[in-house]
TrEMBL record:
This is Mediator of RNA polymerase II transcription subunit 9. GO terms for cellular component: mediator complex. Pfam families: Med9 (PF07544). Component of the Mediator complex, a coactivator involved in the regulated transcription of nearly all RNA polymerase II-dependent genes. Mediator functions as a bridge to convey information from gene-specific regulatory proteins to the basal RNA polymerase II transcription machinery. Mediator is recruited to promoters by direct interactions with regulatory proteins and serves as a scaffold for the assembly of a functional preinitiation complex with RNA polymerase II and the general transcription factors. The keyword Transmembrane helix does not apply. Belongs to the Mediator complex subunit 9 family. The lineage of its organism: Eukaryota, Fungi, Fungi incertae sedis, Mucoromycota, Glomeromycotina. GO terms for biological process: regulation of transcription by RNA polymerase II. Keywords: Activator, Coiled coil, Nucleus, Transcription, Transcription regulation. Component of the Mediator complex. It is found in: Nucleus. One of its GO terms (molecular function) is transcription coregulator activity. Its main location: nucleus. InterPro entries: Med7/Med21-like, Med9.
């Protein structure tokens, strides 16, 4: 995904990208004054580009193509797999060869 920096956590999106209010307020201030049409066009263009970036971010989120039920089923499956691996790790760590004396 280009055009923005990712956060340090995997599968997360930059929340600041989804802050529209300051841009909308700034645009409305310019429109209400009725002055500087060029600046209004520039602000409108920047806001539209921001919407497009947000749309791109949302389209690229893992699992965005899955329904809520499919996501919940996938989460249950992954949690079960994690618990199985934890149980196996506990079992192996209890083997005599793994015990240090």
């Amino acid at each position: 995904m280009q055009g923005y920096e990712s956060t340090s956590e995997p599968d997360r999106f930059p929340r600041e990208e989804f802050s529209f209010l300051p841009h909308v307020v700034q645009l409305l201030d310019k429109v209400s004054s009725g002055k500087n049409e060029v600046e209004i066009k520039n602000l409108t263009k920047k806001l539209k580009e921001k919407f497009q970036r947000c749309h791109q971010i949302l389209q690229e989120l893992p699992g965005a193509d899955l329904s809520r039920e499919e996501q919940e089923e996938l989460l249950r499956t992954e949690k079960e797999l994690l618990e199985q691996k934890r149980a196996a790790r506990r079992k192996y760590s209890e083997l005599p060869i793994m015990q240090s004396e």
